[in-house]
TrEMBL record:
It comes from the Bacteria. Pfam families: Beta-barrel_CAF17_C. Keywords: Transit peptide. It comes from Corynebacterium nasicanis. Residues 262-330 form the CAF17 C-terminal domain. NCBIfam families: ygfZ_signature. This is YgfZ/GcvT domain-containing protein. PANTHER family: TRANSFERASE CAF17, MITOCHONDRIAL-RELATED (PTHR22602:SF0).
């Protein structure tokens, strides 16, 4: 499979339409954006089950006796001693803690499967292969396709790898049997829906897509759901050993908070044009940009919505993207945590001075 030539067999279904937005930053090449009824496809996730073709994503397989330790040393997720069937997200960070890759991870009998947007695949695979050194691991692309189920549970094809993300279930099936696997899910009660329906749910779930919603300055704490706490595994485990970028994660966790944060925006639906992803966000009074617009999609309940990374100091002020008024959805605001232990210790030391 190559990113530029991939075309899902589901694009040959009646009504299937690919994303035609030239400004889109989404990983959407080769799959259907919708099948003729985009908002109706979203609604069916509330009354039943939809299956979304996300086979444009590409999958890395890591096997061998050192697979768990190898990945645990490189990524932000704790992967030592996890059982078969375990699933979570994981990040690859640079030395300053900026996010380079975001993968969904599954533990299988053979090792680990990690899938990423197609645009991240080559650099992610190259990074893993360059880090093998003396580790007893084998790393290669797995010829698997990702399907996502939203709504009520249905039976999945035998032998599929299943991941539970709370708001969705991912099903990994052999790419050669993609059409047959979707037909089996339809027989079990699922309706086929396009990537637009998935994207609307992803925005509402505050789950960013790296290339569309974050930039080269983004750090993990800008996405609060990615920080593992309590029963939430997130993408960053706060009690694991060293990995590249951990110092930034620990410093923000213990001493402060990220200057920016990911939120959901509601856009003025009466505007003649929807703002383009990547556009700057400004306060209504003007001045410097306070954020960056990410994924933009029409939701069947809210109308036009978007993800955006915004300075925390601007979260409660009127905002504009060009001439379009936008509002931070209150439900997307991050919950405030109590005083961090590290900050409290610093304040006590300063008080003694």
């Amino acid at each position: 499979m190559t990113t530029t030539t991939y075309r899902s067999p589901l694009l040959d279904r009646p009504g299937a339409a690919a994303l035609q937005d030239p400004d889109s930053l989404l990983d959407a090449t080769g799959v259907a954006w919708h099948y003729g009824d985009p908002l109706g496809e979203q609604r069916r996730a509330e009354s039943g089950t939809i299956v979304v073709d996300r086979s444009q994503r590409r999958v890395v397989q890591v096997t061998g006796p050192d697979a768990a330790e190898f990945l645990n040393n490189l990524l932000s997720q704790k992967l030592l001693d996890v059982p078969v069937g375990y699933s979570a997200a994981a990040l690859d960070l640079d030395i300053q803690g900026h996010i380079l890759h975001h993968a969904d991870v599954s533990r299988t009998e053979e090792g680990f499967l990690l899938d990423v947007p197609a645009g991240q695949f080559d650099t992610f695979l190259s990074f893993l292969q360059k880090m093998i050194f003396w580790s007893q691991v084998e790393i290669a692309e797995a010829d698997l396709a990702v399907l996502s189920l939203l709504g009520a549970p249905v039976a999945v094809p035998e032998g599929a790898v299943v991941r539970d993300h709370g708001w969705r279930r991912d099903v990994l099936v052999p790419r050669a049997t993609l059409a047959e696997s979707v037909a089996a899910l339809e027989s079990a009660g699922a309706d086929v829906a396009g990537l637009m329906a998935f994207t609307a749910e992803r925005v509402r779930a505050l789950e960013p897509e790296l290339g569309a919603d974050l930039d080269d300055k983004s750090i993990p704490h800008e996405v609060p759901a990615w920080i593992g706490r309590g029963e939430q595994p997130g993408a960053v485990h706060l009690e694991k050993g060293c990995y590249r970028g951990q110092e930034t994660v620990a410093r923000v966790e213990n001493l402060g908070r990220s200057p920016r944060v990911l939120v959901m925006l509601q856009l003025d639906g009466s505007a003649p044009e929807t703002p383009a992803p990547g556009a700057e966000i400004h306060g209504a009074a003007g001045g410097r940009a306070v954020g960056r617009l990410g994924t933009v999609v029409h939701d069947h309940d809210f109308g036009p919505i978007a993800l955006a990374v915004i300075k925390r100091t601007a979260l409660e002020q009127p905002l504009l993207v060009g001439d379009v008024a936008v509002m931070v959805d209150p439900a997307s605001l991050p919950a405030e945590r109590g005083e961090q232990a590290g900050r409290a210790a610093v304040d006590r030391l300063r008080g003694r001075g």
